[in-house]
Design brief:
Blueprint (H helix, E strand, L loop, with lengths): L1 H11 L19 H12 L25 H13 L3 E4 L3 H13 L16 H9 L5 E4 L6 E6 L3 E6 L7 E3 L7 H11 L4 E5 L6 H11 L5 E5 L19 H6 L4 H9 L14 H7 L14 H14 L2 H15 L18 H30 L1 H4 L3 H4 L35 H17 L7 H15 L4 H13 L7 H8 L1 H18 L1
Parallel strand pairs: 6-7
Antiparallel strand pairs: 1-2, 2-5, 3-4
Helix pairs in contact: 9-11, 12-13, 16-17, 16-18, 16-20, 18-20
């Protein structure tokens, strides 16, 4: 929603406003506001106006609804005085009993029955004198149809007598979403309300509120909901819906912004990779497809990899260091999840467990990686070309980077005996490669070609294929069976460190008997 609202503002010379809707005190979470600003800033969707504590400020503040309460109370009193709203003194117990009766009778309409709608002025005064708590309800017209225009769907018709008298002002003095948003949109000069299609059922109420105040309604544009592959609605229970989850998982903001741009919109010639500037060049709100876009994490994973490979090595190095800085000291946040708390979709389930392991690994190494970047930039930069083609997220660097910062590996016997290899063959391969490394100048620009040729020649002389021959060497040098390119890794590590690791592996295997 933020992306399409901002794009609308940027392509029309308008302003993108961020308003904090914090009037539901039962659901209020103190840290949520910070997360909203942090997420939008990371994604590059900074508002033009909003709470000044987080940046922009603006002429129509305050931008936090909890700071605008007198406006809502005044608006509610105006509607009461005009006979368009009324005080309701029904208790929660009565409303709950009413719901149960309606459900038992299988009533077509479930909700408030309008009991207080016809209270006389004397009855209202008696209730007030008795100190009865009350809410303010809107007197929604019941006759005829309520026709409202939606930018994507045209005229939407709602049956008047199926609508309920919604609460506008709660007994604690706080407004509901309905009253607060209509009052604020008018006061702030909002011309377009771009929101999720879940709000369509509230459209007749909102439209009638504008009419009741005598205000012109804005353009309503209800965006399609994002869907999973099985067409089910994305939800917090099954999906990572926080933008900060994607940041912590190592996605690039420009890749996620690109991906979100594909949700309900397409560029000419089905162009899938585009900048925000290209998105704006082609943006037209009327061209939004309301068919229910699929949020496919696997496709985002692919797209993010494409963006990573478009970064130059120095920029990717900076992004990796910043990402490690983000994880510093947060290892405890990324413990493995129990099976029953994992997402059920196969790719997401596998990715979530891996990204937790990756985050713990990089969080542990973060201080060392940051120091290396600041003190010895020549250590980290040469690693980037070795891993860039293998990355789809920044987090996946955890499978490749650690070997350059430690030689304390948890070796196992099996690591050194890949398919078509034996213990004797593994030991002999390590000794032969040690000899090769010892005689090759790893600082020579032709070192890789020299290592490749010597290893290929030696493996053929031993009657081994190159893969099984180098398998034990890869385990010795990297501590893993999958790694960045082996020869290039040895060159980055240097001769002394490479020989030391081969010796460590030989000593380990000698103890295996």
């Amino acid at each position: 929603m933020a992306l399409f609202n901002k794009a609308m503002a940027d392509t029309t010379g308008g302003k993108f406003l961020l308003r904090i809707e914090d009037t539901d005190r039962a659901r209020y979470v103190a840290d949520s506001e910070r997360q909203i600003f942090e997420a939008l800033k990371w994604l590059g969707l900074d508002p033009d106006e909003g709470p000044p504590e987080h940046g922009p400020g603006g002429p129509v503040g305050p931008y936090r609804q909890s700071e605008r309460l007198p406006m809502y109370r005044k608006a509610a009193e105006e509607l009461i005085a005009a006979g368009k709203a009324y005080r309701c003194y029904c208790s929660e117990d009565r409303l709950e009993t009413l719901r149960k009766i309606q459900q038992a009778e299988k009533s077509k309409l479930i909700g408030y029955d309008g009991l207080c709608r016809s209270l006389t002025p004397d009855q209202v005064r008696q209730n007030e004198a008795a100190g009865k708590p009350s809410v303010v309800r809107f007197k929604l017209r019941k006759e005829g149809d309520i026709d409202v225009q939606d930018l994507f769907r045209g005229t939407l018709k709602f049956i008047g007598n199926e609508q309920q008298d919604a609460v506008l002002l709660k007994s604690d003095g706080y407004p509901t979403y309905h009253l607060a948003n209509i009052v604020d949109d008018h006061a702030m000069g909002i011309t377009h309300v771009i929101r999720a299609e879940e709000w369509i059922p509230s459209l007749p109420l909102h439209f009638e509120l504008y009419r009741a105040f005598g205000w012109e309604a804005p353009v309503f544009a209800h965006m399609p909901l994002l869907r999973n592959k099985d067409k089910s609605k994305i939800s917090k229970r099954k999906n990572p819906t926080s933008l900060l989850w994607y940041r912590d998982a190592g996605f690039l903001p420009e890749a996620l912004r690109n991906f979100l741009g594909l949700m309900g919109f397409s560029l000419p010639n089905d162009q899938e990779i585009f900048t925000y500037a290209e998105f704006l060049q082609n943006f037209d709100l009327k061209k939004v497809n309301i068919g229910g876009p699929i949020f496919d994490l696997q496709k985002l994973h692919w797209l993010n990899g494409e963006y990573i490979r478009r970064l130059d090595d120095r920029e990717l190095e900076r992004r990796l260091v910043d990402y490690c800085k983000l994880l510093l000291g947060r290892e405890h946040e990324f413990a493995d999840l129990p099976e029953d708390q994992l997402p059920q979709e196969t790719f997401l389930k596998d990715f979530e467990q891996k990204r937790r392991r990756w985050s713990r690994t990089l969080g542990t190494l973060a201080a060392e990686i940051m120091t290396s970047y600041e003190v010895n930039p020549n250590l980290l930069l040469p690693i980037i070309p070795l891993i860039k083609e293998r990355l789809h997220t920044l987090a996946e660097a955890a499978d490749y980077i650690p070997m350059f910062f430690t030689n304390e590996f948890a070796y196992t016997r099996e690591m050194f005996i890949p398919k078509k290899q034996t213990m004797e063959g593994a030991i002999l391969a390590l000794k032969e490669v040690r000899t090769i490394v010892d005689r090759v100048d790893l600082t020579d620009p032709a070192a890789k070609e020299a290592l490749d040729a010597a290893c290929r020649e030696t493996s053929e002389a031993m009657g081994q294929k190159l893969g099984p021959f180098l398998g034990p060497v890869r385990a010795a040098i990297t501590g893993a069976t999958v790694s960045p390119p082996l020869m290039e890794s040895m060159i980055v590590l240097g001769k002394d460190e490479t020989l030391k690791r081969i010796d460590n592996a030989l000593n380990f295997l000698a103890l295996q008997g």
